[in-house]
Amino acid sequence: MPVIKPYFTAVSSAPVATGGTVTTVITPDSTRFLAIIDAGMIGATDTTIAAASFVDDADAPVTALPELGTSDYFNVYINGTIQQASLSTVTTASLVLATTDLIAGVPVVLEIVSLAGVTSDMTTPPDISAPTITIIT
């Protein structure tokens, strides 16, 4: 005996969201550090500036650089000129510059920016319609 399969045709509409208010606030936190290159920092293949060689914005000595989080980034300025990101690495212990083409007395500024202070609030929830399905016989 053959199997009889019912056949239906249907049309549907997707839910629609309207309205709603979301407020996002980003509060970046920028910290800058200054070091002056000395001959002992310039190695055979790179230039390594120890954290203890830096001072902060208040001219206070630094013992360790901040650890970079997932929402942080850093900029390096050598003699006032921003450098390509691929030419430096930073850890809590040091800043390593992929160059030996520096001379003693050149200022290096390390700027670390944190975007961890992000908040989002939904002050008015959106109205979402229910989907509709119409079966046509």
Please tell me about this protein's structure:
The protein has a domain at 27-117. Helices cover 0% and strands 51% of the residues. The protein is elongated and about 90 Å long. A hairpin with a 3-residue loop joins strand 8 (88-90) and strand 9. With 137 residues, it is mainly β. It has strands at residues 9-13, 17-18, 21-36, 47-50, 55-56, 72-78, 81-82, 88-90, 94-97, 107-124, 127-128, 132-136. It has no helices and twelve strands.
Following the backbone from N to C, one meets helices and strands in this order, namely EEEEEEEEEEEE
Write down the Rg.
Answer: 29 Å
The portion of residues forming beta strands comes to: over 45%
State the strand order across the main sheet.
5-3-10-6-7
Low-confidence stretches: none
Distance between the termini: 25 Å
Question: What attributes does this structure have?
Answer:
3-stranded antiparallel beta sheet; 137 residues; mainly beta; 5-stranded antiparallel beta sheet
List the helices and strands and how they pair.
Layout: E1 9-13, E2 17-18, E3 21-36, E4 47-50, E5 55-56, E6 72-78, E7 81-82, E8 88-90, E9 94-97, E10 107-124, E11 127-128, E12 132-136
Antiparallel strand pairs: 1-12, 2-11, 3-5, 3-10, 4-9, 6-7, 6-10, 8-9
Brief account:
The protein is mainly beta and 137 residues long.
